[in-house]
């Protein structure tokens, strides 16, 4: 039985990631901190699996479902980047280093790529962060259970770690430093997923949740106001703000669950939500390349002078080209999950949850619909183990990575850490990829 509220929440986060990457609207990071939501859902899913199965089986199952779509992307993107001169690039963000290609197999570090192929590898920090959270979750879950009532300290430990890192200036070598900062940025959301799964979040008094969310959100916006990045109110540029605001948002969205009976009556939306959940990994991996292909395709068709229709046309083409990628490559998610491959899995589950309040001790039942690649299987009694049930549990993007050359604070760090972690962002007023833009 699927929890359609969590399905809808995940689908909304994926769409928000796509729109943000297309237009670069910084205010979207405040309307919905998508990555914090995704990590919280993933933490809930992982906790549900760890309740039912040995830790080694949970880790291998998750990796088995998550990595094959990445491997398929790498099999296509890496040879193309090499053929187009990656080895001859000078001053690129990822100089060609053969041994680092192993990160395309097991992304303990960011899978590398050429500057020309940036759209294929730039979003992969999320996959790398997800892998590390999966690997660390068995330990985190044991600590969470053993702390008892003091387990809430574990939620705020990553935020405390950010304070320590800021005060001390502590830094690790480049690859490890990126891992460390993404962990402390989104660790609170991941662990809050544990609280969602075991019912502790549902047992918090509503007034306490509202006050805590208001304090965290207010602190995030206050910090953002004094430590703005390239885009003044883009939380993705400032880890401190991103961590606090994402946690506040997750508290509100996972503490309450509205009824979802209405979704089944809006069939197009219902089917879109189902498709996005069944192809979440594929959509995330390929949407950036779909965006990069828009203007070359429009130019080829002599339709590149769109005037005031530019934004709606490019948005429509983004979804269209991403849909083509789903048709061409989405089947690998089914193979990874050991299911019969399907081209367009938008069939609405036969039974969907629409209760207003999640049940923290609900027992899983036999599966009634497909489970997205990269997330755990269902239990013997039917409800998928990670948040599709009333109990909730579960697992885009572009958050926590500041733009190239811009520090996360007003003053540039002495150790250059934040500059090394910076990711390149599109100019929100120019939808043309840099590699396609004509020379002046």
SSE blueprint and pairings:
Layout: E1 2-3, H1 4-23, H2 28-31, H3 34-52, H4 55-83, H5 118-121, H6 125-147, H7 152-168, H8 174-198, H9 200-203, H10 206-226, H11 239-255, H12 267-278, H13 280-300, H14 310-329, H15 331-336, E2 352-353, H16 417-421
Your description of this structure?
Residues 383-440 are annotated as: Disordered. The chain crosses the membrane at residues 30-50, 70-87, 125-144, 151-172, 207-224, 285-303, 315-332. This protein is 56% helix and 1% strand. By secondary structure, it is mostly helical. It has one domain. The longest helix has 29 residues, at 55-83. The termini are far apart.
Helix content: 55-70%
Question: What is the general shape?
Answer: globular
Number of strands: 2
Structural class: mainly alpha
What gyration radius follows from the Cα positions, in whole Å?
21 Å
Low-confidence stretches: 352-417, 423-440
How can the largest sheet be summarized?
Answer: 2 strands, parallel
- Average pLDDT rating: 85
Q: Taking strands numbered 1, 2, ... along the chain, how are they ordered across the largest sheet?
A: 1-2
The portion of residues forming beta strands comes to under 5%
CA(first)-CA(last) distance? 57 Å
Domain Acyltransferase: 3-331
EC number: 2.3.1.-
InterPro entries: Acyl_transf_3_dom
Pfam families: Acyl_transf_3
